[in-house]
């Protein structure tokens, strides 16, 4: 902050950061519209809103990635000043630390913990310019101690530590240069998205600890139960406007849905999400038999999986779950050859294939589609528009006499935009200009169009709001009802409860339990994952 003047207000009522009249306009799109936000010392302040409501844009303005429109007013610690761009964040400076930990953490898996910390802090140098490894190790240990990771081997690769430890390392390095007790704003964006349920609780303990040392925390998540557990206040964004700021005291999951969507839309979303009752473990009746051959997987071996056999009947939605690394995270990639399997076969539409010889392109040709978990790196084609992203694997369908018919491609994109309520409804919009949840719908549209014989999904609802979740569920149910075999690999027990007719629980690369019927509910699934993991330990 610069050019500061003191505001005449009682200090105890004064927020650490007060932002007024914050707008951000992209060409043709007002992403934030006169938003006001007060964040206090020692609170967890949740940002809640549907896909495209402006949460990421707000974070990107706070961290200096986007400059806001003119007219914003800011005060920090009671001192008013301009929203200037002096540090990495326009608010970061002597008075305030502003740090963000994003959903994908920004760690390099192949590097050690100490190197990953150094990527943020810079390597400490001894006289003469060589790296002072002893000092670097002690700085790393000091930062890790602040997040409760005293015992972690700092030379271990980030790929071998647990998902919770990775999140802790990312938070630890964000605290570099921020002395304990100094004022600051820590932004956590979907921090539990990659964490199994039991590790999320441990993360909350850390977040509460940081809050109690005076850190102001902005917490963004579509996992509403997280917010009920951890947030002190919530600000609700709708179409770029802040429509409510309230204390979280006494608020339930359903209250949050109501605040986010408005009462009427909330009731509708709730009804759709709950409309699917899988009572006896049998697949729902196949209504038109458009697809209809069993997917049969035998002896699948990968880096994690150690020989998995299962079948998915036409119209069945089989869930596969476990803690990260149990095998469900690599399963769909192995089946389409996106990661190298060591052994295994898969029967597709009556023909058996050696999985070690498959590749994603060939699988797409066979009508087997994979919706990957890492949307940004594995799924969207960044420099292209919604139309290209949806139609790319099926371009031949839109060609005549060797010429691509752009009009029929666009018509197909418009059909999916309408079916999945993709926003904005512009087939020519660059996919990088979409919110995360809308980009996920585009990816889903692409692969729903390809899947004739099987659809494999990895974490299909990560980062999507409750309304979009219900929409995705109903499209997947409809595809199953047409006889498509579907495999949902997910750590989100709600996805599994709402979608699956059978759930396979893996641990250590092997099948440990199979849940059907009334056992397919969030509590039993979480419990089965925990028991399977403990039994393998
Ligand atoms: N770089 C950009 N260029 C143009 N429009 C953008 C850009 N980034 C975001 N938008 C638009 O701004 C609006 C808000 O998007 P934002 O990503 O902030 O939403 P969000 O609440 O974070 O959504 P989600 O929960 O899906 O991640 C959307 O309409 C989006 O299409």
Summarize the entry for a quick read.
InterPro entries: AAA+_ATPase, ABC_carbohydrate_import_ATPase, ABC_transporter-like_ATP-bd, ABC_transporter-like_CS, P-loop_NTPase. It is built from 17 helices and 23 strands.
Number of strands: 23
Major beta sheet, strand line-up:
7-8-9-4-10-11
Proportion of helical residues:
25-40%
Round the Cα radius of gyration to an integer and report it: 24 Å
Shape: globular
Structural class: alpha/beta
Largest sheet: 6 strands, mixed
Distance between the termini: 51 Å
Q: How many distinct helices? A: 17
Integer average pLDDT: 86
The portion of residues forming beta strands comes to 15-25%
Bound small molecules, by name, code or SMILES, are: adenosine-5'-triphosphate
Task: Name the poorly predicted regions.
Answer: 1-12, 272-288
Describe the structure.
The protein is 33% helix and 23% strand. With 537 residues, it is α/β, with parallel strands linked by helices. It contains 17 helices and 23 strands. A hairpin with a 2-residue loop joins strand 18 and strand 19. Helix 2 packs parallel to helix 4, helix 4 runs parallel beside helix 5 and helix 7 crosses helix 8. The chain has a six-stranded mixed beta sheet, sandwiched between helices. A six-stranded mixed beta sheet has the order 17-20-21-14-22-23. The chain is globular. The site of adenosine-5'-triphosphate has 19 residues, from strand 3, helix 1 and helix 14.
